Amino acid sequence: MQIAPALAAMADSTVVSDQQPPGSGQTTPSRGPYIAVVTNRNTNLVIRGFMLFSIGVFLALVLNLLQVQRNVTLFPPDVISSIFSSAWWVPPCCGTASAMIGLLYPCIDSRLGEPHKFKREWSSVMRCVAVFVGINHASAKVDFANNVQLSLTLAALSIGLWWTFDRSRSGFGLGVVIALLATLSTQLLVYNGVFQYTSPDFLYIRSWLPCIFFAGVITMGNIGRQLALYECKRMSGKTHQD
């Protein structure tokens, strides 16, 4: 019987081919987190960006629906599309911002030399998303005595979200800066008549809006960090295989 020696020879040749150095012309299949044949770092970056964009578009459609249904946000009738009663430009803008935030957070962590290691698992990320949706839901549907009480409550919830799921100085700093920039951009849009808020109490917008932006930044930052961590694990495993 020559079957056993033949199988042993095939196994030995497989081990030798797997141990070939990178420059020997031999290649071994890598196990990427998204597509098995994807080994290029830039390609994975594009995939992460697309995933973050898709998540941002979905959350924008769902959360903006809450605001429109409760008449918190008002769009002119001629710009409302049939998809979730949202203006056509809102989901792409939110998706683009989500992709930029999700890619920026792990980049800043790397630049600062402070890798984020607090609660790095997908279950924690999903809980963070659920809390963010709950905060947005509260801003639209929970009745408070006045806007000041609502704003203080949402501010406490947003900071609590950061403390529970992030706790990094870079995360807090980026959240505050991006929330301020987003608030300023919203002020300009409302000022130019693109849309409006009912009962504005902070210039042209609602005073609790920066809290929503801050919570959204922390949420997308956590998703981006988790996706980047998944890629780092793949790259580390590929290095060990080489």
Describe the structure.
By secondary structure, the chain is mostly helical. It has one domain. The chain has 7 helices and 2 strands; from the N terminus they run ααβααααβα. It has helices at 3-18, 41-69, 90-112, 122-141, 147-165, 169-191, 209-241; strands at residues 73-74, 196-197. It has a two-stranded antiparallel sheet. The radius of gyration is 24 Å and the shape is globular. The protein starts with a helix and ends with a helix.
The chain-level structural class is mainly alpha
Rg of Cα set: 24 Å
Tally of domains: 1
Q: Strand content of the residues, in percent?
A: under 5%
H/I helix tally? 7
Shape label: globular
Low-confidence stretches: 1-38, 78-84
Number of DSSP strand runs: 2
Taking the alpha carbons of the first and last residues, their distance comes to 36 Å
Helix content: 55-70%
Mean pLDDT equals 76
> What is the strand arrangement across the widest sheet?
1-2
Write down the secondary-structure element order: HHEHHHHEH
Query: How can the largest sheet be summarized?
Result: 2 strands, antiparallel
Subcellular location: Endoplasmic reticulum membrane
Organism: Hucho hucho
GO biological process, one term: SREBP signaling pathway
Protein name: Insulin-induced gene protein
